[in-house]
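Dear support,

We are seeing what looks like truncated structure output for some complexes. This example has two components. We would appreciate it if you could run it in full and send us the complete token output so we can diff it against ours.
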Amino acid sequence: MKRVPPILAVLLTLAAGLTPLCGEEPAGQPLKLTPETIQMGAFYSGMPLRIEGMVRPGSSVVVVVRGPDVEEVFNLKGRAGPIWINKSKVHISGAPSLFLCFHIAPLKETLSLSVLEKYQIGYEEIHKQMRIQPPEQDREVVRASFITLKTQENVYRNIRNGVQMGTATPAGVPYSVEFHWPRRAPPAAYEVKAYECRDHTVVSQTIASLKVVEVGFPAWMAWFARKHASLYGLMAVIVAMLAGFGIDLLASRLRRKGIATRAKPSPAETHPEAAPAGAGKGESESEKPPRGLKPAA
Amino acid sequence: MPIFLPVAGLSINLILLVGVGALVGFLSGLFGVGGGFLLTPILMMIGIPPTVAAASDSCQIVAASSSGVGAHFRLGNVDIRMGIVSLLGGLSGAAFGVHLLKFLRALGDADLAITLAFIIMLGGTGTYMVVESLRSLRRGSLVRKTHRAGRAQGFMSNLPLQMAFPRSRVQHSALLPFFLCVLVGILATVMGVGGGFMIVPAMVYLLRMPTHIAVGTSLFQILFTCAGVTYMQATTNFTVDLVLALLLAVGSTIGAQIGARTSRFLRGDQLMILLGTMALLVTAKMAYSIIRTPPSLLAAIGH
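Here is the complete output from our reference environment:
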């Protein structure tokens, strides 16, 4: 085997290092995320997220936030006569758990179809990446239904005019994206990509990572439920019973003290002839405590 | 005010959860039903994953029915003896129901069978309750009911293992409530609900128990059945969200207290009409949901 001359090896290494993304210019300023980590505490309800960056004058921007690919199982509904029923199970993989796309002009006016395909931007590209099992399902119907479902859940969004461009400075044109992070997005590492676009192509891209993590009591509780399931199950039953009996005890004490409103006599007591349906002899009689038993408190 | 649910992995409005719990708890205390048939769909509607909704629902029913049982017990509305026989029957039925469900799923079209069973059972029970209660309200049912009961009494008194249920003021063969609850247990498991909706009318119309005692006894049975279900869900599926269950329970236990007290202001006929109407409303909602074209043909497992 021929040895590569050392000088050529150095040149090749340098070339590889200088062109991390084929056909693109070196990335500009890094993306700034505020906050960089989203903490899901006890009172978490999503939170405002700001993405900031800089592009050269004359460029447009597309910002994509993408969750990790996950496999999900769904019921696929079908018609059986006049009714819709769950006909079969469908496994869908290869689609991101979250897909938020912010842009200024319509995607197809900003980038060519081949570029959208290359960078997997837009719902159509998610369609292409999606894997469906069993494969004999009507793929188009399943894909369209998947996007509809995710859009309803607010984890797939395509937002036009979602990027605000600032005033040009000598360093470039600043841009920002502000939105409320969806509260239904699960804990995971999300990828934020900003594409600088010019002449229907991507001239550079910058990437940042957004972490969504559980912290504090919810994190402990989730860990306890998974790692000590038996103990957790027992605790759930006992705590629920104690809560129920505790509130009952509290309510009865409050009533005894006269804090609760006085109960009016029931119609059955005031009108014994108006007996409820039920046992043969009528309940006005049967409601009386049976012989040998103490009357109810 | 938002709160994060650790097992469900999402945040939800705290007041909304407590309010939903209070509504379902009120119905639980009033009618002696667990409320699972109402709460699970409501939780799914507000965004809780179906598996977490169903499992946490069982957990909150434990709390709500504990509170309801306490209140009904003090009012003398719990027939412990009948409750134990029913519980044994219900658990046996549930165990058999699990295997039946597996068999139905293997045959395919189990979901259609379950949906139709739900509509027929709930619709049938609801119609029967409303019609029967309205009839007895109009005609004064005491004499007629006694005659009707007299015919059935002959068959029931010939069954073995006769047992007195002094609290309910009835005497039956233990086999009757046992097998009745086996049947309810099977249906409840196959249809995925607690079964209170079916137990209360069965106790009132077939076992001839006073309505208020049927309500209290039904809650007693549901308490232990749901405790078992909660434990199994927590250990096998890891889907019990205790924070969610407790928040629902705060609302439902208070609601159950009010419901149990309110039940004293209503006659048995009125309770049955209300319960029957609710059953018919749920049936109508279910029938509509399977007829209308869904916006997405995909649904999360459990829908």
